[in-house]
Amino acid sequence: MTSKAQAKQSLSGVPIGNNSLKIKPVDVDEDDLNLEELDPFIFPSCMVGIGSVASGKSTLLFNLIRILQPVFGDNVIIFSPTFTNDPIMNKLMEDDLILQYFESFSNETLQRILKVIGEDPDPKSKYLIIFDDILGMKNISNNIMGKDSKFLQQFVSTYRHGAGICREGQISIMFFIQHYKSLLTTLRVNTSYMMFLGKHSQKNRKQYAEELSYLTDGDENKFHEIWNESKSGKYDFIMMDMRKQKIYKNLDKLMYSQENELTGEESNIKN
After folding, report:
1. CA pair distance 23, 16, nearest whole angstrom
2. Bigger pLDDT: 46 or 20?
3. Of 28, 35, 84, 202, whose Cβ has the fewest other Cβ atoms within 10 Å?
4. To 5 degrees, how large is the angle CA 204–CA 54–CA 18?
5. What is the pLDDT of residue 3?
6. Contact criterion met (CB below 8 Å) for 90 and 20
7. Which DSSP category does 104 fall into?
8. What is the pLDDT of residues 231-250, one digit of tens each?
9. Residue 18: strand, helix, or coil
């Protein structure tokens, strides 16, 4: 890869239709969300967002891509079956915040992407590959859930080291899914940051507490307490740092750390 234009040509996806529907700029103040002060994010990483339809996933994704521009620039590639029908996703392309998108997934496409990334001559370049609700894509059962899932699972296991094609540390990945139970075991054990958006049933929250309360020293009641405090607003979400074992409300309020056992309004990561 010798230029951004050549990269886009190599990764050419489906044509983008004209979309006159405008969205208001996402409410992000880059001064308030200085990446250097955002303690959670260490790259390369695997981020997973879990939320149903209308939970604010597209808005969060837009925010994250803007916030992470100092790391990835526009080296962002998205797989999303609803890309052209989502005005927020279209805004990403209009604002030149992403390199390319694909409305269908295949192992062959992912391999081609990795080959193009591996040919990037810039030794400092970093790429973010996003898989947005790919379980809703055609033939996805053959690619992920069926016998032919090995390549993607191997990629999730080896992305930190370049998946045998790219430089070590060159790639980070992000998955957005609707249901926690859709998480492949390989993805679950390699997740660096997990975000829960929107409403989740009592039954599901009980499962989360059973499986994730190691973040609160095994205290499931504390887990539920932090969950309720972190998701008090309609579009509030909870983010769990699986590496440092910390829990955040949205991106900037530390709700719990095993080191300090903080709760509620007691801490902001900038303080």
Report:
1. 17
2. 46
3. 202
4. 145
5. 53
6. no
7. S
8. 988 888 999 999 999 999 98
9. coil
